[in-house]
Fold this protein.
Amino acid sequence: MTFDQKLDKLAEVAVKVGLGLQEGQELVMTAPIEAVPLVRLISKHAYQAGAKMVTPLYADDVTELMRYQHAPGAAFDYATGWLFGGMAEAFRNNSARLAISGTNPSLLKGQDPDKVARANKARSMAYRPALELITGFHINWNIVAYAHPAWAAQVFPGDPNGVDKLWDAIFAASRVDQPDPVAAWAAHNAELHSRRAYLNEKRYAAIRFKGPGTDLTVGLADDHIWSGGSSIAKNGIVCNPNIPTEEVFTTPHKDRIEGHVSSTKPLSYQGTLLEDIWVRFENGRIVESRAKTGESVLGKVLDTDAGARSLGEIALVPHSSPISQSGILFYNTLFDENAASHIALGQSYAECVKGGTALSPEQLAAKGANSSLIHIDWMIGSGQVDLEGITQDGRAEPLMRGGEWV
């Protein structure tokens, strides 16, 4: 296939597999301004699927950087609540949500960490009513990627063919370089569904990670459910929230996490690269933390709110996943989280608790689900990390050895 054909296939996968878009739905789409070609193709496929309206909202890195360079100090405690309120209203009216990922990972490198933290917190607070409808899985939603030139320059520094190489990696990970991508996704979803069915049958009380710099036991929420691959949203639509995806995941118990853990890949967060993260948990909360780079940013993230020091997700990914085997560090969570088992600071997913989408925040908290303004994944798995499932009576059963399913 030509590049244009593969880009069109990516748009088709986003609409048919990622969103499962239904006739009569609206689609709200966010994207970097560089991604206009993909936005237009997704719009075409969305209208062909029967969408009644597609609304793209564009972000511009240059304009974002100008804010940090020229805006008055008080501006960093403000967010466009009117915009996020409109998005929440759209989701309450059953609009689908699609995000195109692919901005400059180092955009805010060198900017004042305090301004970055304040701006992120203000945005998170304003976006929360909309975000809760996503994390509660009320609607069908999806994230796909676009090869931004600045992103390619970080993944393949100094390589004049970096953008082409990044596109090849995106197409391969998204399974659109295959003759029938939709069928390929059906087969992949079936495999992920078998993994989650096994774990749901086991009903482990906790998962233990052991490896270099890591000995972490993550208790699982009461009535937790493992998810992975395609799922049914509360509006009855089957969707794949992430393209690509290699994980099965569930909700930890916010008060039952003990031990220490080291990151196995750098985390690119809001333009700052956090390397060699190490944290220690007691009674579900991070009580010590450090990082080789980005430590001040990590500290501000952990101080976002009370829930930022606990976990909202635990995800299992084999070391042999295609993204891991590519050997590419993407500096983008959508891809890097699918190269290794990972945890997420902050907000949990209601879909990963039995009947969770019908429960109140207080009821979810009673089962151990965490609540926060943030949800930040970082990687803790590798070919040197073993995993055990801890049964309800305290026995340890091997789950992964050397990063591979047993």
About this structure: The chain has twelve helices and 20 strands. The longest strand covers residues 252-262.
